[in-house]
Each structure stands twice: as C-alpha cells, then as structure tokens.
Design a protein that fits this description.
Layout: E1 14-19, E2 29-34, H1 38-47, E3 49-52, H2 58-74, E4 79-80, E5 88-91, H3 98-101, H4 107-117, E6 121-131, E7 140-143, E8 163-168, E9 179-181, E10 205-207, E11 213-218, E12 223-225, E13 234-243, H5 259-266, H6 271-276
Antiparallel strand pairs: 1-2, 3-11, 4-5, 5-6, 6-13, 7-12, 8-11, 8-13, 9-10, 9-12
C-alpha cells in the first residue's frame, strides 16, 4: 500500500519506457508513469528542484505528524542537534513506522526520481527532523548532500547523484524558517561552499509553502534552512532515491529487525520492491 496524496497537486503525467540492455534477462522493459509534465522534468533538470504544494492534506498529514512524534518518543537513537544547528533527528523512519514504509514507492516522488535517475532505484535514506519552540540555532548553513567531487575530474568519473524529497509537515513562512535554494547549483562541478556559511547567495530563491508540501531536489543542490522565530514546530521528512548500486547513508544505524528486514524475510516481494529496499538491482 502506497501513502495517499492529493492528485490535484499534480498538473500532468507522461510515460517513459526504459529498456535495459541485458540479453541474459531478455532486455527487460519497465514503463514509468511519471507524475509530472515533460516541461516540469526539464525545469527540474535546469533548476535542480520541483515543488508540489499541499500534496498531503487533512487526516493523512496528521497521520505523518503523529507517526514522527511516535518514533521520536520511543527511538533510543534519536540525535539532538549539533554545534551549528539544533533540532531532533530520527533516522531510518521507514524501518520504524508503517506510515513511513508506505512512502517507499510513493508515486509523486518515485516516478519523478525514475524519470531523471533511471528505472532501478532504492530509498537510500529516510530522516525526520523536528525543531521545537525555544530551540537555538534553527538556521541551517548552506550545504549539499553529495559532497564527493574530486579535482581534477577523472575521465570516467560517475556523479553520485540522488533525488531528495523534502516533505514539510508544517507551514514554511518567514517566521518558521523557509527553505532557500540556489537554482542550477546542482550542476556546478568547480564551485565550493565554505564551512558554516549562512550568508545570502546571488540568485538564491526562498521557498515558502503550506504544510503538506513536497520539494524534490537533487542531492547536489545548494540549499539552507532559514531561522525560525522560535514560536512553532518545524517538522520535516527527508527521504532520498538513488541508483540501486549507490551505497546507503553513513548517518545513523539501520535496525537489524526493522520493517525492511521483516518485509524481506517474508520472501514474497516483487523485484521492484526488493530494489527499493536495497536488496536487488546490481551485480
């Protein structure tokens, strides 16, 4: 079962048909119903991000809020903020609550990821972040999630690209720390960010949006969170899709007996689900 979403938040569909050149498996074909227009995919490639406002609403949004707090309240491995930013972080959410496992194959996110990264993907990371009223250092410095660019570039260098999905459970406005991005920065291979940099950047775009909105952005996009005014919660779900052969996150520890292990142990999963759980899709 995949998590519900508001189809009115998706302006159009198109289809991509992939054929994998693998004669030993009969050159398998996979058809993807992409929940985005072709023009939106072009804009995602150009700008590095795509927004879906109010894609989760009502009782479904409340379910995700409650699920996040349930995990944080019982998880012995939650992380409290760092020296430069505060908040509470829970890792591997899809292993710890069924509501988050339902986002594993969520069509509005997964189909877009397959349109830009290919047909064989997995959910590489799933983190929740909670900023509470009274937290200090609610601003997050400029950063990107794939910081592995060598200089000079090797002739056959493979970019470690991901599509990050940021699902906001609270309104993002001037008082609650909106997201700021630098369009096009996901393509920069010869620029660098300084440590602990929170200064405005030329061309940056500040994204304010209502609760239940989704931002899909490449892991190499420059972004930051602006500070909150300290009066409300800011809750964020972050899950990322990556090619099935890209390693998982080094942050946090996946539960040995979590929902992933339980689903795989059942032995009745199709190949696409096994890929999404990180158990298939490479040699």
């Amino acid at each position: 079962m995949s998590f519900p979403f508001d189809e009115s938040a998706v302006p159009g569909h198109h289809t991509v048909t992939y054929t994998t050149l693998d004669a030993h498996r009969g050159d398998p074909v996979r058809e993807v119903d992409v929940l985005a227009t072709r023009e939106e995919i072009e804009a995602l490639m150009r700008d590095g991000y795509l927004v879906r406002e109010r894609i989760v609403t009502g009782e479904h949004l409340e379910r995700l809020r409650h699920a996040l707090h349930e995990v944080i309240d019982r998880d012995a491995e939650v992380e409290e903020g760092r020296e430069t930013f505060s908040g509470t972080y829970a890792r591997f959410l899809h292993d710890k609550h069924p509501a988050f496992m339902e986002l594993l194959d969520w069509p509005p996110a997964l189909s877009v990821a397959r349109a830009v990264l290919g047909p064989v993907l997995w959910m590489r990371v799933f983190t929740g972040r909670l900023s509470r009223p009274g937290d200090e250092f609610t601003e997050v410095e400029w950063h990107l999630h794939q910081r592995m660019i060598p200089q000079p570039l090797p002739p056959m260098w493979c970019r470690p690209q991901t599509l990050d999905c940021l699902l906001y459970l609270d309104d993002l406005d001037a008082g609650n720390g909106p997201l700021s991005v630098v369009p096009g920065s996901h393509q920069w291979l010869d620029s660098n960010l300084g440590a602990f940099d929170t200064e405005p950047k030329e061309g940056e775009v500040v994204l304010e949006m209502p609760a239940g909105s989704l931002v899909m952005a490449f892991g190499s996009l420059w972004h930051r969170a602006l500070p909150t005014d300290g009066t409300r919660c800011r809750r964020l779900l972050l899950f990322a899709y990556a090619p099935a052969w890209l390693k998982g996150t080094s942050v946090g520890r996946q539960p040995a007996d979590g929902l992933t292990a339980q689903r795989l142990a059942a032995g009745d999963l199709d190949v696409e689900t096994r890929e999404l759980l990180g158990a298939a899709g490479w040699m």
